[in-house]
C-alpha cells in the first residue's frame, strides 16, 4: 500500500531547478503515522523515483534530493540507490513520481514493492522487471508438459517467473553473455527444471519444431547492445517453434514491421512504459 504524503509543483527541468524542491517541501511539517513508523523501527530508508518530461537530471538526482530532505525531517539514514546499490535489508521505502503536472511523494513502508523478488539476488544491465516477465509468461499460455525457451535469458527473470506460474513445464534459457548466464544460474539455483546454456539466439542448437513457447526480451541496442539483427532472430525462432507454438517478446515498436516478412502472424500487442521508453509485448504465431 502507498500512502500519499505530499504533492508539489514541478520544480523545473534543470539540475539547478531540482534544488527548489527543498523549499517546496518546507511547508510540510507533520508526517503523522509515517514519523511514528520510523520512531518504532530501524531508522533507515530509500527512495524510488520515476520521471516524465525532458530534464537535465536523472532519477537518482531526484531520489537524492528527496532523500536528503526526508533524512533531516525524520532523523533517519537515507540509503541512496545510485550506482545500482541494493537497499539495506528492512529499509522503508518512499516513492516519488515527477511529471510536468507536479511531484507526488508517497510512503510505501517496509513491505517490499511488487517488483522486488527474494530470488533475484543477481542482476545485469537492462534486466527485466519481474512483474513484466510474469505478465509475458501469462500471455504465452504455458501449460503442463510444454517446452519453453528464452533465447535471450539475461538474468533468468522470464524463466523463473514463468516457472512460478507453470512449474510442470520444461524451461530452457540461453544467452551469449557469460556474465548474464552466471546471474541466471545464481537466481535459479533453488528452482529445478530450468536448463541454461551459452548460445547465439540466432543460431540455436535445437531441433526444428521442438519448442512450444518462446518468451523473451531481446537486447534493444540501447542499454544493451544488440548482437543480432531482429529479422535473423525471428527466422531462427520460426525454425525451432512448433507448428502450434507461440512467441511472446518485448521489443521497441519500430521492430513490429519485421513480423510481416518473417513467417510470423502477429496476433496481439501490449504497450508498456519502461525506463522512459514505450516498448510493446508482441504476441505471434508461426505462419505455415
Automatic annotation (TrEMBL):
**What Gene3D superfamilies has UniProt attached to this entry?**
Vaccinia Virus protein VP39 (3.40.50.150)
Ribosomal RNA large subunit methyltransferase K/L-like methyltransferase domain: which residues?
A: 117-275
One Pfam family it belongs to: UPF0020
- The organism's place on the tree of life at top rank: Bacteria
> CDD domains per the record?
AdoMet_MTases
Under the heading PANTHER family, the entry gives: THUMP DOMAIN-CONTAINING (PTHR14911), TRNA (GUANINE(6)-N2)-METHYLTRANSFERASE THUMP3 (PTHR14911:SF13)
- What is the protein name stated in its UniProt record? Ribosomal RNA large subunit methyltransferase K/L-like methyltransferase domain-containing protein
Amino acid at each position: 500500500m502507498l500512502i500519499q504524503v505530499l504533492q508539489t509543483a514541478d520544480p523545473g527541468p534543470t539540475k539547478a531547478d531540482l534544488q527548489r524542491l527543498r523549499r517546496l517541501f518546507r511547508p510540510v511539517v507533520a508526517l503523522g503515522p509515517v514519523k511514528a513508523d520510523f520512531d518504532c523501527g530501524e531508522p533507515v530508508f530509500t527512495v524510488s523515483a520515476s520521471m516524465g518530461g525532458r530534464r537535465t537530471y536523472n532519477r537518482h538526482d531526484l531520489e537524492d534530493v528527496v532523500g536528503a530532505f526526508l533524512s533531516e525531517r525524520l532523523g533517519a539514514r537515507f540509503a541512496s540507490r545510485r550506482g545500482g546499490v541494493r537497499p539495506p535489508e528492512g529499509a522503508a521505502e518512499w516513492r516519488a513520481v515527477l511529471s510536468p503536472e507536479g511531484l507526488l511523494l508517497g510512503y510505501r513502508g517496509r513491505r517490499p514493492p511488487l517488483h522486488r523478488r527474494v530470488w533475484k539476488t543477481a542482476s545485469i544491465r537492462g534486466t527485466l522487471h519481474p512483474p513484466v516477465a510474469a505478465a509475458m509468461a501469462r500471455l504465452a499460455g504455458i501449460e503442463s508438459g510444454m517446452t519453453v525457451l528464452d533465447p535471450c535469458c539475461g538474468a533468468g527473470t522470464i524463466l523463473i517467473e514463468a516457472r512460478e506460474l507453470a512449474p510442470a513445464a520444461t524451461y530452457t534459457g540461453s544467452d551469449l553473455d557469460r556474465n548474464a548466464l552466471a546471474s541466471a544460474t545464481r537466481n535459479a539455483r533453488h528452482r529445478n527444471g530450468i536448463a541454461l546454456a551459452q548460445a547465439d539466439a540466432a543460431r540455436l542448437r535445437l531441433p526444428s519444431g521442438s519448442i512450444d513457447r518462446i518468451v523473451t526480451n531481446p537486447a534493444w541496442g540501447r542499454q544493451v547492445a544488440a548482437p543480432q539483427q531482429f529479422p535473423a532472430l525471428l527466422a531462427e525462432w520460426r525454425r525451432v517453434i512448433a507448428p502450434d507454438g507461440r512467441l511472446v517478446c518485448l521489443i521497441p515498436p519500430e521492430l513490429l514491421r519485421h513480423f510481416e516478412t518473417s513467417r510470423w502472424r502477429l496476433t496481439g500487442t501490449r504497450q508498456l512504459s519502461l525506463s522512459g521508453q514505450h516498448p510493446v509485448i508482441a504476441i505471434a504465431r508461426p505462419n505455415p
